[in-house]
Amino acid sequence: MDNNQLCIGFIGLGLIGGSIAKSIRRVMPNTEILGFDVDQQALSLAQSDNTITKIVTSIEAMKDCDYIFLCAPVHYNIAYLPIIKRIIHDNCILTDVGSVKSDIYMAINDNKLEDYFIGGHPMVGSERSGFEAANDRLIENAYYFVTPSATVAEQKVDKFRTFLEDLGSIPIIYSPEEHDEITAYISHIPHVIASSLVNLVAGKEDESGILKQLAAGGFKDITRIASSNPVVWEHILLSNPYNVVTGLRQFNDEINDMITYIETENAGSIYDFFDHAKDYRNSVPDHPTGVIRMNYDVYLDIPDEPNALATAVSHVGNAGINLKNIGITHNREDNEGVLRLSFYDKESANDAAKLLKNLNYQIYER
Question: What is the pTM of this model?
Fold first, then answer.
């Protein structure tokens, strides 16, 4: 079937659902897109900007859809499955966008929907949420996990993979179990560790608040993901307990090993610990398609004199480069400049760095 003749239903139009729907509208402009959401404002916005063709008030209205995207919180998605089972037709593909697959797959099996279901998880994110934050390029050039159920037809998997490629995503196929293990190690466990570091430092804070002042810089960078929504992470960890606990125990072993190396003055093992981490970390590709959102920052020195900061920022603005945020870093343990300029994408950050270098500012590469 011509992709432009598709009928696609979205249950949930938040950041991810809204962004996928917007991508479909951009790439396949004649697609009929139906929207269902408990958030009436999201529906109104999606209809007013032509993302969706029609607002529907019941799941039954999606009976003719070629694809149904489950983009609501997982407990809502699961609650809708009995209705979907009654109305879904043989050629329809049912998919989701959740970051953990165990709960949804258990519910899919209980409702005998395996022949229709192909789980999905775009490796994207944003510090904002809701349909207002959605954009039609969010999943472009991003890895997109595809986790087929055990009995879904290979023809459907190929069809869904091609569909995602048409939207500009990079589909990668894994089993649901493999997906949950991978995301535990590259996303879920790092969030726990980052929050643990913050709580460790917070526990040593005094009334002056000096630790948080001194911690600005490298510490704030490595713990940035600790600012994530605690409700979201409560649900994620409790949905993926085996993989998260297994990884945390392995991490605990790593820490205990380091304690032993320090106590026994084992200099060689301490060196090897940091050297191995350095080599692997430096081999990680520098692109924005991971599950943990990247920052695009430029650090530079500015003289301590009137209007120096405003002048540096004005250079960037006058060049038409969209600046996201600015900050002053007094902790320079990582050899970074005192002024931090944050941008929305890598290209803007690179353009700003090149501009400021040409204006004889000292730029610190990271």
Answer: 0.76
